[in-house]
Amino acid sequence: MPASCRCADRTIRKDMFARSLNFPPQLTATFGVAAVLLLAITSWASATGLTFGEDLLRWMESRYGSAARDRVVALQQLVEDGQRESERTKLQRVNAFFNRVNYASDYARWDQKDYWATPFEVLGLNSADCEDYAIAKYFTLVSMGIDEERLRITYVKSIELNEAHMVLAYYRSPAAEPLILDNLTARIAPAGERTDLVPVYSFNGADLWLAINRVEDKKVGDADRLSRWRAYQSRLMQQMAAGQ
Ligand SMILES: [Ca+2]
Predict the structure, then answer these.
(1) What DSSP designation does 204 have?
(2) Ion ligand 1 — residues with CB under 5 Å?
(3) Which of the two ends of the chain, N or C, has the fewest CB atoms closer than 10 A to its terminal CB?
(4) Number of Cβ atoms within 10 Å of the Cβ of 61
C-alpha cells in the first residue's frame, strides 16, 4: 500500500502534462533570472565540483545526527558519479535515492497542511512528502547537469488515492512525452502509462522567479505558490549559511 500524499488541492486544467506557465522564451535568458536561479541551485551544492563543504557536513551532523551527515555524503557521491552518466541513468539513480527517504505527511512532520522541506531538511530528518521528494529530485538533477527546461515539478490528482499529489516530470524535448518520477513507485514511467494521474499544473525554478518578478511589477502571479517558493529559498539560504 503506497503512502498517501495530501498536497494542496488545485483547479484541474486541461493541459495534460503540458507546460502550463508559458512565459516568453527570451525572458528565461535574462541575466537577473539566470543569476538568481544559479544562486538557488548553487546555494546547496557548490559550483566547483558540486561538493558540500566540511562546515556544512558538520552542521548537518550537529543538527540531525551522524546518519544525516552520511546521507548528505551519499548524495554528494551520487551527484559526482552522475556527471558521467546518461540522463536516463541520472533520473533512475536520483529517483531511487530520494524514494528511500521515509514518507511522512506535513501534518505529522511539521504540523502544517503544506510545508516545502528543503533537501537539507529531507536528508536531515530522512522524511518527506510528495512535494519534498519532487523538489529535492529537481534540485539534484539540475546539479547533475540536466537542463532545468527539461524538468517540471508537477501537481497532479491521484485517481487511486483521490488526493492531490506532486511528481517530477522529465521532458527529453519540448514536444516529448514526459517521464514521471514519483515517490509512490520505483518505476519511471511515460506519462501516458500513468493513467492514475491527472495533471493539474507544472512549474520549474525559472517560471517561479519570472513570476516573482512579475508580481513585483504588480502584473500577474500565484501568491500562495510564490510565497512558498520564497520561503523555501530563504530557508535554503539560511541552512547553507548555518553550515559556513
Ligand atoms: Ca512537504
Answers:
(1) -
(2) 106, 115, 129, 132
(3) N
(4) 16
